[in-house]
Every structure is written in C-alpha cells, then in structure tokens.
From TrEMBL:
The keyword Disulfide bond does not apply. It comes from the Eukaryota. PROSITE patterns: K_BOX (PS51297), MADS_BOX_1 (PS00350), MADS_BOX_2 (PS50066). This is Uncharacterized protein. Signal peptide: none annotated. Residues 136-175 form a coiled coil. SUPFAM superfamilies: SRF-like. GO terms for biological process: positive regulation of transcription by RNA polymerase II. It is found in: Nucleus. InterPro entries: MADS-box/MEF2_TF, MEF2-like_N, TF_Kbox, TF_MADSbox, TF_MADSbox_sf.
Length: 235
C-alpha cells in the first residue's frame, strides 16, 4: 500500500518536529549536491533550525556565491538585443523572402501581376490552374457521390421503417377483425339460447299441468261382483 498524503502544517509535537527536520534537512542537502554535480551549477543552501542552529551547503565557496547573489546577474553573460538580432537576421530574411514568393504566386494564380512573365511561365501557370480545376472537380464529384450514397441509405432506412409500420398496422387490423368475429359469435350463441328458452316457456304455458291431467284421466271401470256371481250360477 502507498503512503498517505501528509498534510503540510506545523508539527506540534517537539520530538516529532525535530525528527522530521533532521530527515528533510538531510534530503534537501543531498538534492542540492546532486543538482550541482549533474547540472554543473553553483548551489548554495542555508538553513536555520527553530533553535537557531545553522546548516549550510555550497558547491563552491559560500562567500563567493553570496557575493554573486548580492551583485545580481552579470550583464556580460546576457546576450545583447543587437547581438541576437544580428544572429537571427539571415533566418528572418529567408522567411521574409519565402512569404513574398508565396504571396506573388497566389496573386498570379488569381490572374494578377502577370506582367513580365514569359510564354513558358504563362503556360506553366495555366497547367497548374488546369490541374487545380481538375482537382476541384474531382473533389466536387466525390462529395456529390457521398451525398447521393447518404441519401440512398436514408431512403432505404425510411422504406424499412414504413414497411415495419405497415406490418404493425396489418397485425392490428387482423387482431381487431378477430375480436369482432369473436364478439359476433358470442352474440349468436346467446341469441340461439334465448330462442330455445323462449320456445320451452311457450310450450309449458300452452300444455296442461300434471295435476289437471291426473284429475281429467278417465276412471277405471271394475265389474260388479254380484253380476259376476249370477252369471256364473246360470252357467
């Protein structure tokens, strides 16, 4: 695990503050020494502890470093503006000439400042213009083809979307027809049942009840016992 970030503030504990001072002082002086060796620099470091003790490091004489610091930067070591201008003047002149040349070519491409050009130079300029026109036409055709291809893809996408919508509409219509057919069949069945029930009720109202039927049934005739005995005696 990495070390947590230490908050930079005064350490209140005296012992901890002294330990931290010793470690960081040693690290600072070590870095100053490495800087002077690696970069060939004159380095001077002065440290006073909280108790007033002095710690210092110098790559050369501390007095010389302090004297140089108090004196300020040596003007002889700084290049003058005139010297810089003289050194960069050839480069500046070359860049200026290149800019003027490009501007002149641009004006001639626009059909200006053609005076003084020979027949070969004019023919070369015409060839450059024709090549430029052909390049522009090719680029224009390429852009046009890209736009046509983009339009074709958009048209195909729109056709697919329309086909999908049409299929969805057909499915909705078929579903609606099926629901209507189901409702119509249910109504027909209900009407048939109602008609049968109506016929049954009518027949019941027209027929006799079971009690009346039994009451109106003809009585059964039984032979008289006396007549039967007399007939048997005569025989």
């Amino acid at each position: 695990m990495g070390r947590g970030k230490i908050e930079i503030k005064k350490i209140e504990n005296t012992n901890s503050r002294q330990v931290t001072f010793s470690k960081r002082r040693a690290g600072l002086l070590k870095k100053a020494k490495e800087l002077s060796i690696l970069c060939d620099a004159n380095v001077g470091v002065i440290i006073f502890s909280s108790t007033g003790k002095l710690y210092e490091f110098s790559s050369s004489s501390m007095e010389q470093i302090l004297a140089r610091y108090n004196k300020g930067p040596d003007s002889s070591e700084l290049p003058s503006v005139e010297h810089v201008a003289e050194e960069s003047q050839p480069e500046v002149n070359a860049l200026r000439a290149e800019v003027e040349k490009l501007q002149r070519v641009y004006r001639r491409m626009m059909g200006k400042e053609l005076e003084g050009l020979s027949f070969m130079e004019l023919q070369y300029l015409e060839q450059q213009l024709n090549e430029g026109i052909l390049s522009v036409k090719d680029k224009k055709e390429q852009v046009l083809l890209e736009q046509l291809e983009k339009s074709r893809l958009q048209e195909q996408k729109a056709m697919l979307e329309n086909e999908t919508l049409r299929e969805q509409i057909e499915e909705l219509q078929q579903s609606s027809i099926a629901r209507k057919h189901s409702v119509s069949s249910s109504k027909t069945v209900c009407n048939c049942r109602s008609e049968r029930e109506g016929i049954s009720d009518t027949s019941l109202r027209l027929g006799f009840s079971s009690d009346v039927y039994h009451k109106r049934k003809a009585p059964k005739i039984e032979p008289d016992s006396m007549d039967f005995q007399s007939q048997m005696a005569s025989l």
